[in-house]
Amino acid sequence: MIKYQLKLQYIGTHYSGWQSQKSRPTVQGTVQAAVQRVTGQAVSVVGAGRTDAGVHALGQVAHFRLQGPVEPLRLQRALNGVLPGDIRILRLAAAPPAFHAQKDAVKKRYSYRFYNGPILSPFLAGRVYHVVHRLDSEAMCEAAAALVGRHDFTAFAAAASKVRDHHRTIFLSQLQVHGYHLRYEIEADGFLHHMVRNIVGTLLQIGSAKRAPSDISKILLSGDRRNAGPTAAAHGLYLVRIWYPVSK
Amino acid sequence: MIKYQLKLQYIGTHYSGWQSQKSRPTVQGTVQAAVQRVTGQAVSVVGAGRTDAGVHALGQVAHFRLQGPVEPLRLQRALNGVLPGDIRILRLAAAPPAFHAQKDAVKKRYSYRFYNGPILSPFLAGRVYHVVHRLDSEAMCEAAAALVGRHDFTAFAAAASKVRDHHRTIFLSQLQVHGYHLRYEIEADGFLHHMVRNIVGTLLQIGSAKRAPSDISKILLSGDRRNAGPTAAAHGLYLVRIWYPVSK
To answer: Which of the following is catalytic: A52, A165, A215, A224?
Structure first.
């Protein structure tokens, strides 16, 4: 068995998330079907991040194993030839036997995009979250910065989270403002389920003057999901990049 | 009756073009249905350019008439509230009684967008025309420039064109190159049916070394549609802007 790693982009709009489901189209299921169609082999494609329904990816990473070697560039072209246009494999290469797209990841970056102007261009519909009322981006910047460091993110995890340890280290948590376009960028050693969207839902409350920027630290300390804001809409969220140790 | 003019953007992908058809969704039909839903009045929305199926618009202009005055901003918001996200009204205002979106237009700009790299991002799928083989952009630039001026465009008009006079004045005809992104911009006092797409199909042949840049002038002079290239795909084409006399 030879292992391959791939980097892919997708628009999440028409998929029930990354992870395979029996009766609904998913990104994982679609990629697995493409590999089977091209190679004749039924494979399991393991993704670094299990993005939710509607979430987009600019740089998802995944791995799978094949019996016998293939020419990576040829396989990549064949897969892109059968995949729908809303999923593209940007890179495909042989990987070390021990490589694991999910377990080996040391850092991930997500981006959440807002449009804070009166009318959303059709060309951005489904790709950014539209907020019509004027957001206080300075308050949101201040709140975002308070997340940097190692914290217990229980208050921002999905209530049903079954992960034992809710501590995560945030390397970057920053709101970027370009006119009507706002972009929240966050990098961490890992993310709990719904963590980014729950943080963004809270930042939106802060930007809408429903909460103070200093609430972020209080919510973190409380460890109670009920204190954080609602889960922000999926269609503003992008899985941007996954980092691995240089040796891998 | 009070006349209103509107500027709109749309993604053409899910529409059978601008013009109303009985059994297929069109942009005109969708906007007319929205006006009827909001005002209760059955109106005819007259567009400046009758874009084909799949063609996009960044700045289509249209007009319609209503019985009795309405507050334009309120009507615009109400219409955007019921229109699907792939059509947006950017501006709506009362217009002089004599204003006619199509007949009064003095200049129009179209843009045709290519992606000339190996892998098309899902975020550009359906929005640019993907050409994998390397195009000779210098040859295309040279050919594009030869169209500026007043010419008989019979050779670039749809064979079924019923317009009497095929003379049009081209103010701008330019290929812009930004890395893998190519953009052909053309401004004229008017366009014949399929004219931009037939020009682009010919430019693509020139960029693919199937023809010389100097062929453009020969094709124009021939006045024969069979001498020009094929009609380029609709999904790379954008109606960008319409100009009206300052007085209107």
So the answer is: A52
